[in-house]
Amino acid sequence: MTAQTRQWVQKAEAGYDAVLLLRRSRKASRFDTIRFHCQQCAEKYLKARLQEAGVRFPKTHDLAALLSMTLPIEPSWSGMHSALAALTDAAVEFRYSNNWSSNTEAHDAFVTCRRLRALARAGLRLKP
User: What distance in Å separates the CA atoms of residue 71 and residue 93, rounded to the nearest whole number?
Assistant: First the structure.
């Protein structure tokens, strides 16, 4: 694994660790932050996989776009498209508006994040 890939993985894991801590909280205000960190974790893992394959990628938070770039390397990930597209909005939408995430949305984000994390770690030959 390249040093740059390892840095992306470390950033992804930092986001995942934050999600795990936040999920233990009972405060309703945590849902936006859970979704944000789930999006960040997924984004960093997609970028790690692209980096490791030597694929250049733009600065973007668009998970569906990053996934599309990843599919030639990992075609089995195609089933993640709609879930990642839905998670993309968590990068900014709920951070700067009067909308608030629900418990269900936070849970769905976590399910997507956990699934993508497992796929990416397998693709990078990392332990689950």
Answer: 26
By 3-state DSSP, what share of the chain in percent is helix, strand and coil, each rounded to 5?
Answer: 75, 0, 25
Question: Which residues are CB-neighbours of 34 under 8 A, at least 6 positions away?
Answer: 19, 22, 23, 101, 106, 109, 110
Determine the average pLDDT of the residues in 57-79: 97
- Phi then psi dihedrals of residue 101, to 5 deg: -75, 150
Contact between 42 and 113 (Cβ < 8 Å) = yes
Q: Is-contact 30 106, C-beta < 8 A?
A: yes
Q: What is the mean pLDDT of residues 39-47?
A: 98
Helix orientation angle between 3-23 and 31-53, rounded to the nearest 10 degrees: 160
Which two tokens mark 70?
Answer: 């990843």
CA Rg value for the chain: 14
Q: Are 2 and 76 in contact (CB under 8 A)?
A: no
Q: Please give the pLDDT value at position 61.
A: 93
Whole-prediction pTM value?
Answer: 0.94
